């Protein structure tokens, strides 16, 4: 019962992890095309030391590029004076290289391997010419810790990519955040890499680690492809979310391994069509939709899919979190084939229980979610708002067992509803009522008439004491397949 290492899904992911291990041979090799550049070519401005997100866009669009070529043009930062010895400040060289590369068609801004480049907080802004690639083969890092951080630099963010369409950031190298000295500070405002107001972005192959705070953040973007990256920070590094997206649509996150001290992937307000597949999280705080509706804001999230992924050693598994007082909705959320190992709160919807408005959660499905949970928390926890019930929650093939210790057969459910059974002939088992105070029960009854009881199919976690399973009020039914009953 302790380990599911024999399960086929788990084996699949071991194989997948092996595949993911970095393959240096797969690096693209470029023939070098040395070019000469005048100081003013391109006319791309790079603003440094932004005090806040770039609020005043001042980049001038590069006019007719002088050095566009049909093939890749390599712009090696060393050609612009970058030293790469791990201590020299290479910010100016990167700015010059960016200017030049941004103005050329199919340019590759190369950060070569075997060098360690230190740059200060910088906004790399566009628009740039099409098919722009930033290839990081070496190591790129900020000054080490707050003491070395120049007073004039933004302490909120380090690398910002702004107003770019079609940028690819890739390479076999490492983006090192040097976050250690920031983690102990009372406020940790510093994001490592931020993509802002950009479209059609690709982030591929890189290793990104030890961010002072969020590792990679996308906001105001449309069209993001993240593939084969790894993100790592210690489990106890605070607020080091792996990938955070907000106000961003059409996102794919694939074949990626994340271990950190906060959310593995967090999906904030204004996101739609986010597809997550073959992601391994852990240690982490799991994959999170939210928090939404903070400070009475309006937040909408829709069409999110998480498939064929693994979450292990994490504080949450699949979480939806909203704040009281917010408005908006979370709809069309699909979790499918997710393997958990020693995870607290494997499945959790967390809405603060106050009689105020709330973000509406609907159409959430959990299919084939299996593995083990940390018994310190119930593996399933649906705490929906008193005023706005969660509706159309469906579960099938959810099998969660204790990683170690006693079964927690008390899933918590409050004001959460599912759909009518597809097959009315299956036996249904009425469950006892929850132990919450009756005064809080009022509002849900009417909602249930419209939406019907939640249906849990094959929820092995509660099979052991089937009649104890609770979901709130009345018509709660649980349908248990015969095969699972036999196993239990
Ligand atoms: C993204 O790329 C597609 C196809 O190349 C293009 O049609 C679209 O306009 C781009 N999106 C933006 C916002 O520029
Ligand atoms: C949902 O998201 C997927 C990608 O994750 C996209 O292909 C699909 O078109 C989206 N559907 C809707 C209705 O937006
Ligand atoms: C329930 O949610 C599923 C997605 O999980 C959706 O396909 C279906 O249309 C929803 N049903 C209702 C009655 O809204």
From TrEMBL:
Keywords assigned by UniProt, alphabetized: Cell wall, Cell wall biogenesis/degradation, Glycosidase, Hydrolase, Secreted, Signal
Biased composition (Pro residues): 51-62
InterPro entries linked: Glyco_hydro_28, PbH1, Pectin_lyas_fold, Pectin_lyase_fold/virulence
Pfam families, sorted: Glyco_hydro_28
Compartments where located: Secreted, Cell wall
Active site: residue positions: 285
Source species, domain of life: Eukaryota
Chain positions covered by the region annotation Disordered: 30-68
SMART domains: PbH1
GO molecular function, a single term: polygalacturonase activity
PROSITE patterns: POLYGALACTURONASE
Transmembrane segments: none
GO biological process: carbohydrate metabolic process; cell wall organization
Signal keyword on record: yes
Cleavable signal peptide: 1-26
SUPFAM superfamilies linked to this entry: Pectin lyase-like
UniProt family annotation: Belongs to the glycosyl hydrolase 28 family.
Record's protein name: Polygalacturonase
Originating organism: Acorus calamus (Sweet flag)
